[in-house]
Amino acid sequence: MKKIVNKSITLALSKGRIFEDTMPLLAEAGIKVNDNPEKSRKLIIQTSDPNLRILILRASDVPTYVQYGAADIGIAGKDILIEHSAQQPGGLYQPINLNIARCRLAVAVRQDFNYKDAVKQGSRLRVATKYIRSAREHFAAKGVHIDLIKLYGSMELAPLVGLADAIVDIVSTGDTLKANGLVVVEDIIPISSRLIVNQASLKNNVASLQPIIDAFSRATNLYE
């Protein structure tokens, strides 16, 4: 198979849905991945292109690895990129919305919670989330004061045990919310995954990076 890159390129991905949704895009580019991270403990995975390797990271770490040059390119959800840019602005080029791993960032509460009255202008809410910037900006635009409680998992528990009035979290099917007696009361923003590129890598290694960026672009167009 003809190599898609001439110099070594490192692609940062996270396990789960983003990895799974990226595989057809790589296949369209003529690249096969040698291991499945769900079955392998390897954190560096080789591909059928000897000059392209994949790092398996936590989703929240992907932008950091790309921004600081440990990876040349990566794929991350818009939700992660919004939060990352609040803490580490600049340094990332986002050439393509891949339109994969689609979901939405939303506000959810207990089914018996009167959200409409709770968000009247000037009111105050306790909101649990790991999406601090998105939550703060959303409620500030509504004129609602919030006390933010940062959590990293099991977000649905917070309203059930009285830790928070509402949560801001990623929603896909909504099944987990429903199973725990919560309902979505407001959508904040639609989410999909973006291709991100280290700006220095693109400048210094454009001959190798541009073909894979172009390959992702062509593959994405096929799945729109």
Q: Major sheet: order of its strands?
A: 2-3-1-4-11-5
Terminal residue distance: 27 Å
Strand content: 25-35%
The global form is elongated
Structural class: alpha/beta
Largest sheet: 6 strands, mixed
CATH first level of the largest domain: Alpha Beta
CATH homolog superfamily of the largest domain: Periplasmic binding protein-like II
What is the CATH architecture annotation of the largest domain?
3-Layer(aba) Sandwich
Rg, rounded, reads 20 Å
Number of domains: 2
The H/E string reads EHEEHEHEEHEHEHEHEEHH
Segments where pLDDT lies below 50 for 5+ residues? none
Helix content: 25-40%
CATH fold label of the largest domain: D-Maltodextrin-Binding Protein, domain 2
Tell me about this structure:
The chain is an alpha/beta fold and 224 residues long. The chain folds into two domains: 124 residues, Periplasmic binding protein-like II (D-Maltodextrin-Binding Protein, domain 2), CATH 3.40.190.10; 89 residues, Periplasmic binding protein-like II (D-Maltodextrin-Binding Protein, domain 2), CATH 3.40.190.10. 33% of the residues lie in helices and 30% in strands. The strands form two sheets. A six-stranded mixed beta sheet has the order 2-3-1-4-11-5. Strands 8-7-9-6-10 form a five-stranded mixed beta sheet. Strand 2 and strand 3 form a beta hairpin. Helix 1 crosses helix 9. The radius of gyration is 20 Å and the shape is elongated.
